[in-house]
Structures are given as structure tokens and as C-alpha cells.
């Protein structure tokens, strides 16, 4: 790895001016996760915040942020996931998608025990926070590390 940084060069002044008016929510989230605020982190997190309960793939984020390179984006998503800001969803579509975590998530410990719903018509994946995953009783020698539970079907928008 060369000394690649995840800041864009040459627009720091603009960035700091913009920082003052950017959404408090994004700053708060980065502070809570004890992450330094950089422009690419801010931009990626903004997209995830705006996408709400809908999980979004890295290729969609890359497409929206045309200036970001794939390795930087990959590194940011990994950092966010390790910091308890976002969780990944494997919905069977072949793409890993990412969604904002609940408040209880912290670095190294996720509590996103909710159902993920994959819509076969519009290809969206939604965090159904109110639908909690059942606890599963395993034989004593087995330890749960994560639960992946996806239901595929037709979402409320596509029903209409
Ligand atoms: Zn989480
Ligand atoms: Zn749909
Ligand atoms: Zn989720």
C-alpha cells in the first residue's frame, strides 16, 4: 500500500467552509464513532444517511460520488462497518449492500438483529427495524456470531 490518503487534494479550504454548514447528524455520527472527518467520509456517510432504511451497494455509492476511487470507498465502508456506523447486508442479489446502524451499535459490536427485505421487482433492500429476528437455540458447542436473514418478495412501493 502506498501512502494513499482518503482526502481529496487541493480543496481543503472549500471543505472547511462547507463543514460549517453540513448536517450536524453526519458530524455527530463521525464523532460518536471517533473518526476523523474527511471529505470522502463525509460524502459517503451523507449518502448512507439519506438512503435511510434502504441498503445501498458500493457500486451505487461509487456511481453517485463520481470523484471517488474504488479502493478509497472500500476502505471507508470497512472503517464505518468496524466502527458500528453501518452494517452490511448480503441479500442474495450478488451485491453486498450497506445500511446505517441502529444507535446501539458500537465498534466491534453490532446489534442489527432486524429483518432485511429484498424486493425482486425494484432490486431494493430495506432494513425492517421493527421486525426483529427470532432467537435461535443452537446446540451448546455452537456460537452465533452473526445472523443473516433476508426475505425476498414485493415491496410496498411495487405493490401499487
Ligand atoms: Zn450495526
Ligand atoms: Zn420494490
Ligand atoms: Zn439492516
Keywords summarizing the entry:
alpha+beta; 160 residues; Arc Repressor Mutant, subunit A; binds zinc ion; 34% helix
Q: What can you see in these coordinates?
A:
There is one protein chain. The chain has 160 residues and is an alpha+beta fold. It has one domain (12-101, 110-159): Arc Repressor Mutant, subunit A, CATH 1.10.10.10. 34% of the residues lie in helices and 20% in strands. It has a six-stranded mixed β-sheet with strand order 2-3-1-5-4-6. The chain is globular, with a radius of gyration of 17 Å. It starts with 11 loop residues before the first helix and ends with a helix. The chain binds zinc ion (3 copies). One zinc ion (ZN) binds at residues 84, 87, 101, 105, 110, 112.
The CATH architecture name reads Orthogonal Bundle
* Strand line-up of the largest beta sheet: 2-3-1-5-4-6
Bound heterogens, unique: zinc ion
Measured distance between first and last alpha carbons: 49 Å
Total separate domains: 1
Continuous helix count: 6
Global morphology:
globular
Sequence stretches where pLDDT stays below 50 over 5 or more residues:
none
Helix content estimate: 25-40%
Please give the number of β-strands. Answer: 6
Name of the CATH superfamily: Winged helix-like DNA-binding domain superfamily/Winged helix DNA-binding domain
Pattern of helices and strands: HHHEHHEEEEEH
Amino acid at each position: 500500500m502506498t501512502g494513499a490518503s482518503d482526502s481529496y487534494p487541493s480543496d481543503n479550504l472549500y471543505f472547511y467552509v462547507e463543514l460549517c454548514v453540513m448536517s450536524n447528524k453526519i458530524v455527530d455520527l463521525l464523532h460518536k464513532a471517533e473518526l476523523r472527518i474527511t471529505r470522502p467520509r463525509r460524502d459517503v456517510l451523507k449518502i448512507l444517511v439519506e438512503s435511510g432504511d434502504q441498503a445501498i451497494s458500493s457500486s451505487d455509492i461509487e456511481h453517485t460520488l463520481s470523484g471517488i476511487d474504488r479502493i478509497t470507498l472500500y476502505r471507508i465502508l470497512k472503517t464505518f462497518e468496524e466502527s458500528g456506523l453501518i452494517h452490511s447486508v448480503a441479500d442474495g442479489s450478488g451485491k453486498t449492500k450497506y445500511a446505517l446502524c441502529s444507535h446501539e451499535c458500537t465498534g466491534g459490536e453490532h446489534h442489527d438483529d432486524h429483518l432485511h427485505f429484498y424486493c425482486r421487482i425494484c432490486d431494493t433492500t430495506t432494513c425492517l427495524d421493527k421486525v426483529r429476528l427470532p432467537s435461535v437455540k443452537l446446540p451448546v458447542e455452537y456460537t452465533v456470531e452473526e445472523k443473516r436473514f433476508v426475505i425476498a418478495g414485493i415491496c410496498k412501493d411495487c405493490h401499487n
